[in-house]
Each structure stands twice: as structure tokens, then as C-alpha cells.
Amino acid sequence: QVQLVQSGAEVTKPGASVKVSCKASGYTFTTYGIHWVRQAPGQRPEWMGWINVGRNTTKYSQRFQGRVTIKTDTSASTAHMELTSLTSEDTAIYYCARGPVSGFRELFYFNAWGQGTLVTVSS
Amino acid sequence: DIVMTQSPDSLAVSLGERVTIKCKSSQSLLYSPYNKDYVSWYQHKAGQPPRLLIYWASTRESGVPDRFSGSGSGTDFTLAISSVQAEDVAIYYCQQYYTTPVTFGGGTKVEIK
Lengths: 123, 113
Hints:
The structure holds two protein chains of two kinds.
Chain A: E1 3-6, E2 10-12, E3 18-25, E4 33-39, E5 46-52, E6 57-60, E7 68-73, E8 78-83, E9 92-99, E10 112-113, E11 117-121
Parallel strand pairs in A: 2-11
Antiparallel strand pairs in A: 1-3, 3-8, 4-5, 4-9, 5-6, 7-8, 9-10, 9-11
Chain B: E1 4-7, E2 10-13, E3 19-25, E4 30-31, E5 36-37, E6 39-44, E7 51-55, E8 59-60, E9 68-73, E10 76-81, E11 90-96, E12 103-104, E13 108-112
Parallel strand pairs in B: 2-13
Antiparallel strand pairs in B: 1-3, 3-10, 4-5, 6-7, 6-11, 7-8, 9-10, 11-12, 11-13
């Protein structure tokens, strides 16, 4: 079965960076994309960006442009998300999610999710 | 950004009752060349990741019980649960993928009376 297993919780300080990983199994990693979605306490989910794993192309939300980097290691079927210049407002659960790849118009819905990684930013 | 507005914020229903959740977008999500609405619905239970229920506004994801259905087009969409079960307690979110950034509704919390 399809599984996305994320790395463990992180506690970090303002100004630092955090890197979260997401290991995929149960499907051919290169035939889907991987998105990152976060949800702060009491807030709606927020899309951060995605990577077309097969083409190694990325697209980021303007809100995070310049602060977020998404990469993959296809040999390990793992995606990584790094977020820099953290503030307390980045405290949230971060999810990786699988999405279909389309040859034409982008299809950014999410048909499998990781278990979530809590990132806490506190001085 | 496209704003997705859900209603109600929460509801409490008896087992077996019908539930209807509304989602309104700030612009049309219908892509006319494909005649498809770029809307999905998710179920989010406490302590679990979200689960895709519906995409293309009305296509049920594999494995999703048929008591869940999606409808609507353009700017107005509905998720219905025909006969709510105890395991349906969750927060439900609509999401548009018509354009980036994709955006979510504020969520509707479903509880059992």
C-alpha cells in the first residue's frame, strides 16, 4: 500500500532552518509529484510547493518563495523540504502529500499524505 | 489568491442523519475546455493526516464509502454524507486546484449529538 513516512518532530529557534524528509513506498516514486502542505494551530491547511519527481521541476507558493526548497533523492524514494529564516509563525504540522502528474494543466490535489511532522519554533 | 469559504463552521448531527457542507469560491473553478471543476474534499480526523474523499468536485476516491458525495459547479460546491456514521467525526475541508497557490476552505467540524 502507498505510504509516506516523515521524519520526526523538530524544535528549533527563530532564524534557524529546518529540514523535513518524506520517504515514499508502495508506488513508483517518479510517476507522481510530492507536495508540502502545512497547518498551523487553528488555521486552515496551507500549500507550500511541490516537485514533479520524474522531471525534477519545482513550483513554490509565492508566500514561501526564497525560503523553501523541495528536493528529492530518487534512489531512496525520499523527498526533502527545507524552510529557512524561521519565525514563531512557522510553528505548524508539516505534511508531505502525493499528487498526480499531468501533461497539461496541473492537478494539484493530494491522494496520499504523510503522518505529519510537528515543527516548533521557539526561543 | 482564490478564497474558499465553507459553511457551517461546525455541526452536530445524530447517527444516520444526512450532512451537507457548503463551499463557495471567490472565482469560478470550472475549466471550460475540459468541463471540469478543480475542487477536492478532504476528511481530517484528529491525530491522522487528511484523507482525499472527492476530486473533480464529484469523483469519489477509490475506497471512499458511497455515502460521501460531491456536487456543484462554478463557484458553489457541496459535500454530502447521506447517513452519518460515528467514524465520520472529523473536520472536512474543500480545496481548489484551479490555480496556484492551491487554497483550502476554513473547515467544517462534524460531531455526533
